[in-house]
Amino acid sequence: MLALDIDGTLIGSDKKIPSFTGQEIRRVTADHAVHIVLITARGPQSTRIIEEALGVECSYATYGGSLVWARNDDGGFTTLGETPLEFGDVRTFVEEGQRLDVHIGVYTRNDWIVNKLDYWGLREARNTSIWPTLVSPALVEWSESEEPVFKIMFRGDGDQLTNLEKILRARDAEAFIHRMPHVIEIVSAHAVKLPAVASLANYLGYELGEIMAFGDSLSDVEMLEHVGVGVLMGNAAKSVQASHHVERTLSNDEDGIGVMLRKHFPTTAPFRT
């Protein structure tokens, strides 16, 4: 089984799958009966677009492992796990975001809802090829519905998000809060990539030792350290540290996945990147 993070790993900085990497994934899938899992912070809609570009049917672990779908032989999915955020936490987080006037994105099983179509919303739409649903200014009222929310993202200037981060962390909610320069990403505290991959492996009939996994961020490290072959991308930040047995490869813009697949699944086919 091959577990692939998407952003910073499978796709390059141009948001496309490098041609040699795509070629090698399709080769090992066909020649070695490898099952592909896309494990990502993205939602199912955006993940499906990447799957279509890859040209190989995949299982999904989306929203950082909050929503786990195993691909069936008939092309459909079996849901193995759903770990949404608590409804009360969703309302509190949305209220705080609206009070500080930052961009808010709320992600459900099938939709991405925003409070405004500003620079940040348009940028995310361009990056993911998904157009959001605008629910403004009533996003707080919408958050009271019974539809499960799997991820919330706040986007804005650094000072705004720094203030918001302090407030959100003080709430002591059952949530994992990940801060980046212009983004705060929130998923359930129980959404972790390794258990998601282990659940898929068990359902599909694989052992953890039969998995090769690629990632580039801190959220990937536990997964990389517990599978048969874990590979850290060359573009990973220096702060992302993994055990010595985790292999290192080239960056996502240098076919880091493709060259590592060629190493572990040798072939006499021409090597053309």
Percent range of helical residues: 25-40%
Mean pLDDT: 93
- The termini sit apart by 24 Å
| Arrangement of strands in the largest sheet | 5-4-3-2-1-12-13-14
The string of secondary-structure elements, in order, is EHEHEEEHEEHEHEHEEHEHEEH
Count the strands?
A: 14
Count of alpha and pi helical runs = 9
Class based on secondary structure composition and strand pairing:
alpha/beta
Principal-axes geometry comes out as globular
- CATH homologous superfamily label of the largest domain: HAD superfamily/HAD-like
Total tally of structural domains: 2
CATH architecture of the largest domain: 3-Layer(aba) Sandwich
Q: Which fold name corresponds to the CATH topology of the largest domain?
A: Rossmann fold
CA radius of gyration is 19 Å
Name of the level-1 CATH class of the largest domain: Alpha Beta
How is the main sheet built? 8 strands, mixed
Percentage of β-strand residues: 15-25%
Low-pLDDT stretches are none
Keywords:
single chain, 273 residues, alpha/beta, Rossmann fold, Hypothetical Protein, Haloacid Dehalogenase-like Hydrolase, Chain: A, domain 2, 2 domains, eight-stranded mixed β-sheet, six-stranded mixed β-sheet, 9 helices, 35% helix, globular
